[in-house]
Amino acid sequence: MEFLVGVLIVVVVLLLSIALHEVGHMVPAKRFGVRVSHYMVGFGPTLWSRTKGETEYGLKAIPLGGFVRLVGMYPPDEAVGNPPARTWVGRLARDARQASAEEIRPGEDHRAFYRLSTPKKLVVMLGGPVMNLLIAVVLMVVVLVGIGIPSGQSTTLESVSQCVIPADAPADRACTDGDEPAPGAAAGLRPGDTVVSYDGTTVESWEQLTDLIRATGGESVPVVVERDGAQVTLSVTPVVAERPVIGEDGGPVLDADGEMKTVPAGFLGVTAAQAIERQPWSEAPESVASATWQTIGVVATLPTKVADLARSTFAHEERDQNSIVGVVGIARFGGEIGAADLPFSVKIAGWLQMLAMLNVALFVFNLIPLPPLDGGHVAAALWEGARRQVARLRGQPRPGPFDAAKLVPLAYTVFILLGAVGLLLVYADIVNPITI
After folding, report:
1. Which residues have CB under 8 Å from 327's CB, separation 6+?
2. How many C-beta neighbours within 10 Å does residue 99 have?
């Protein structure tokens, strides 16, 4: 059930991210007078829709994206000089121009998208990716400032052992009848207790408490814990047991033979909970900026990563933990976080942080300068603006709109390639998944 809850949370927030991405396009388009005929979340058959004003809002069956239909995306034939359609590329471009022109109502040519100035086109097309970036920042603010992130061990007890387990025993070894009772449980310590003082010394860190326990093996000492808002004084007698020597890296120290070094030391049988520390506001944009730069590196090497994924999937090789993942993999991550034995606040932080990184990926990916991605429309608008600026500087007549319909064959090609990669990701995430 917890796994399914995690999957559901990820799917819902992902759909909200898609919906807000499209809002980022729709709002400025309407602000600039462009008629928006459709606002849809998802692709494929329409599950639900409602028309309000001049826009149909709806939800479609395949939740892998969304779109807003901006009327007049491509200039009509006469606006670009009625170019001949001698090849299949020309015919595709002509058909796209004609389909776009048919959406323009009589007397509303001024409301067509192609009529917008270059700055306004950029605002409309960048609105979606920028919305994803803002979502990422907001989610990271909630995680870092509102919830906090693990920052070492706290003085709160996460677990209390019932017996003294030998230092060289496996980590998952259970207590047996012959084991010595653990002194912490015998003294009445409970998970959730926060150690306030030990043997009269105020405890400020888990490392300090560990040193105090190790130094008082065999002695009966008072320990004060905070439990349910009240302080409780207990008496504990740590047993002297062989405990591993811990190095500066936090791991056990090994001898020349590769065996774990141990020393006789006081042992109480308690483990610390993770300390959750809230971060300053400045950490959120810094984290998003770092994630954005890393994502740019991934996108720059995307063909190589797709090839590596295909090879490992079809050759039945172990999948790289840094491999790209699709929607199925992201949903699986959400389920694994939900099923993990973690405090609920930590799960929430994990879900939100993962979704923040997903929105960063959507921001970067959509800026790839290829149609039908937003970056392709941005590139077309910049080219149109550059042509006009060059003509102005040369004293030449203002050129007409750029014939963006010429990019339709490229858009179809990119769409097919992205669909193929999407299917590969779904297959790989099912048969050769990455686990966290």
Report:
1. 14, 63, 64, 425, 426
2. 13
Tokens of 294: 């890393």
Chain position carrying tokens 């405090």: 343
Q: Mean of the pLDDT values across residues 404-421?
A: 93
Sign of CA dihedral 6, 11, 15, 21: positive
Q: Helices in 32-156 by DSSP H: which ranges?
A: 88-102, 118-141
Nearest to 284 by CA among 276, 275, 292, 274: 292
User: Are 67 and 77 contacting, i.e. CB atoms less than 8 angstroms apart?
Assistant: no
Is 250 a residue whose pLDDT tops 80? no
CA distance 166 to 242: 7
Catalytic residues: 22
Query: Residue 425: is it exposed, middle or buried by C-beta count within 10 angstroms (0-12/13-18/19+)?
Result: buried
What does the alpha-carbon distance between residue 280 and residue 141 come to, in Å, rounded to a whole number?
A: 9
In the chain, what percentage of residues exceed pLDDT 90? 55
Burial level of 19, CB count in 10 A (0-12/13-18/19+)? middle
Give the Cα separation of 398 and 395 in Å (integer): 9
Residue 172 has pLDDT above 70, yes or no: no
In sequence order, the 6+-apart residues with CB closer than 8 A to the CB of 114 are 72, 73, 74, 75, 79, 100, 401, 404
d(CA 166, CA 91): 79
Following CA atoms 108, 113, 115, 118 in sequence, which dihedral angle do they give, to the nearest 10 degrees? 160
